[in-house]
Amino acid sequence: MSSSLSFLATTASPFHHHHSRHPQKAARAPTHFSPSASGAGTNATNASGHDNGGDKESILRLDRRNVLLGTLGGLYGTAALGCENTAVASPIEPPDLSKCHTAHAGEGAENVQCCPPYKDNSEIVDYKFPSSSTPLRIRKPAHLLDADDLAKYEEAYRRMRALDPSDPWSLEQQARVHCQYCDGAYDQVGFNVQLQVHFSWIFLPWHRYYIHFHEAILGKLIGDDTFALPFWNWDSPDGMTMPSFFVNDKTSPLYDEKRNPDNLKKVLDYQYSHKNYENPYTDEELKVKNLYQMNKTFRESLPLPELFLGDRVRAGEEASMGKTMGRIEAIHNAIHLFVGMPEAPYRDMGNFYSSGYDPLFYCHHSNVDRMWHIYRQKRGNKIDFNDSDWLNSSFIFYDENKQLVKVKVEDCLNPQKLRYTYQDVELPWADSSVKKKLKAKAKPRSRVSLVQVSEFGPDPRPLDSTIRTLVQRPKKSRTKSEKEDEVEVLVIDGIEVPDNGPVTFEVYVAAPYGGDFVGSDLGESAGSFVKLPHFHIRKREDAQTKKFSLKLGISSLLEDIDAEGSEKVVVSLVPKVGEVTIGGVHIDLIKTDWTA
Ligand code: C2O
After folding, report:
1. Of 340, 330, 397, which Cα lies nearest the Cα of 106?
2. How high is the pLDDT of residue 108?
3. What is the 23 CA–ligand 1 centroid distance (Å)?
4. pLDDT band at 384 (very low <50, low <70, confident <90, very high)
5. Which long-range contacts (CB under 8 A, 24 or more apart) does 253-257 make?
6. What ligand 1 atom has the least distance to the C-alpha of 182?
7. Cβ of residue 360 lying under 6 Å from some atom of ligand 1
8. Which residues contact 3 (CB under 8 A, 6 or more apart)?
9. Is 296 exposed, middle or buried (0-12, 13-18, 19+ CB in 10 A)?
10. Which residues contact 576 (CB under 8 A, 6 or more apart)?
């Protein structure tokens, strides 16, 4: 059993650490919080350490931009691009608000106007933490919300919806923020590349700030500074349907009519796709399947944060330049598709530009954020990426004091400093018996019809039907300590996807039966690629080919299917939605990252 595995087997509380070398106090009540070692003192440093005012900042920014332009010289056109492999790197910068333009959100949403009502760069101040005497907002599971909390929650959205649509606090403007940062309304400052907060390591931090300010605004609207967004507890069997108060009452301010009418009461599926979706499972089996997916997501990605959060993306780069999204983001995308309308333009939750019009979006993201919070706790609150380009990536939000603030990734790592936390609830997916329960219920595997498989080959292949391919492992029969040093990562690269629509494909891994034969059963799910519709790169003549990649940890999967001794594995890519081309499939060993 690998260390991460036994770690997860200690069920229930996110506060039970396998890594007892780094004990973390349970945080059950507001009075018990103690600042983490790394976070202590950041507040003071922050208040005095930043330059005060925009002038100096913009001069610095201009300088760097000139340097970048100079360095890249004539190469600039072909992409900001070379950046990836040169020493030139810097954090993602906030947008120039005065340069907001039309956004593109795929079929049926080609020219979306979602720029904010504020365009004056001079009024941006650096974010300051709420004072430590500010009450702690405690986010609770939505399906367990009591009548009082629900009444406040509804009242807050009633007031938000009643605001003038030009008011930055209105639901209209709140939703537009998501469109701005996700559908190309801004270019990265100094680059002909869109600013995009999905598919990379800034996905979780950006959304953490986004809902933090949204929550504070809702609280302000009802005059309650303890107001907390509930979380859609979709990692628990009882939370795997849309919370009832979102769907039962059409007059509720939490109701949104642009949801898939077929799924309002259905059990969700982390592998949902709105086309070619097959569900041979009962509700109970589906729930166990989801738990097992979550169990694997944590086990595989705990030693290597890029597998959970997404790849490193720096100034001038975009995720479509061969980067991978994190595994939690893929699950989150599938839930978006499950809730949204099933046809183009897939409103509301099914498309980034429109997601924020559905109050369920923020409740969904409250749980996405909670998953990250739990992930960090399970890593002993070690830093996810000890990389200044991640820590200094910054964004601009409009806060609950009607102020534009500039925030940095490094300041959001500890939710207590933002004065919120999550109610401690059971984590049924962390239980190692999840897998056994699933096995017992799954239909027996067919071992009769063997098929022959071959290697992927040197050329890209269209994924128009299931591709089954034999993949060589760098090393077989890895020892426990080798596994602690390096994670085995399945890499699918050169993934070309259409600009317009959503894309989903699934990845399965099986052990071959000696040589190059495999049973008809696809094997174990290793994860999926899920993209919502949007133009992921701006149209331009010199556009790079738009290729994503997908990295999936498979160390513990191979243990689960008893394939550690195999020299090769059979990888199956199963198309669901969208026209996809695959460049290649291989397996890498990547050093684990437990950076302090
Ligand atoms: Cu910005 Cu759930 O997406």
Report:
1. 340
2. 86
3. 32
4. very high
5. 253/154, 253/157, 253/158, 253/160, 253/161, 253/359, 254/153, 254/154, 254/157, 254/359, 254/360, 256/348, 256/357, 256/358, 256/359, 256/360
6. 1
7. no
8. 18, 484
9. buried
10. 273, 275, 276, 277, 504, 505, 506
> How do residues 319-378 score in pLDDT, each as one tens digit?
778 899 999 999 999 999 999 999 999 999 999 999 999 999 999 999 999 999 999 999
Strand, helix or coil for residue 406: strand
DSSP 508-567: EEE--BTTTEEESS--EEEEEEEE-SS-SS---TTPPP-EEEEEEE-HHHHHHTT-TT-S
For residue 76, report the distance from its CA to the centre of ligand 1, in Å. 30
CA distance 180 to 95: 10
Beta bridge partners of 103: 112
pLDDT score at 545: 57
Structure tokens at 147: 């009548």
Residues 6+ apart with CB under 8 A from 515: none
Contacts 24+ apart (CB under 8 A), 35-40: 35/414, 35/416, 35/417, 36/381, 36/414, 38/381, 38/383, 38/413, 39/413, 39/414, 39/417
pLDDT of residue 30: 33
Exposure letters 30-66 (e unless 16+ CB within 10 A, then b): eeebeebeeeeebbeebeeebeeebeebeeebeebbe
Question: Which atom of ligand 1 has the smallest separation from the CA of 332?
Answer: 2
| Cβ of residue 193 lying under 6 Å from some atom of ligand 1 | no
CB of 531 closer than 6 angstroms to any ligand 1 atom: no
Q: Over the Cα atoms of the chain, what is R_g? A: 23
Ligand 1 pocket member 417 (CB < 6 A): no
- Rounded to whole angstroms, how far apart are CA atoms 228 and 231? 9
Here the tokens at position 157 are: 């959205």
DSSP structure class, residue 443: P
Ligand 1: distance of its center to the CA of 378 in Å? 24
Closest ligand 1 atom, CA of 197? 1
The two structure tokens encoding residue 161 = 């919806």
- Picking from 26, 3, 37, the residue whose alpha carbon sits closest to that of residue 383 is 37
Using the atom order of ligand 1, give the atom closest to the CA of residue 210: 1
State which amino acid sits at residue 261: P
Share of the chain above pLDDT 70, in %: 81
The catalytic residue positions are 178, 198, 207, 332, 336, 352, 365
512 and 455 Cβ atoms separated by less than 8 Å = no
Q: What is the pLDDT of residues 472-502, one digit of tens each?
A: 999 999 999 999 999 999 999 999 988 778 9
Strand spans (E) along 363-472: 394-398, 404-408, 420-422, 450-452, 454-455, 461-462, 467-472
Which residue matches tokens 């059993």? 1
How far apart are the C-alpha atoms of 221 and 19, rounded to whole Å?
42
pLDDT tens-digit readout, 419-469? 999 999 999 999 888 887 876 655 555 556 888 999 999 999 999 999 999
Q: Tell me, using a 6 A CB cutoff, whether residue 332 lines ligand 1.
A: yes
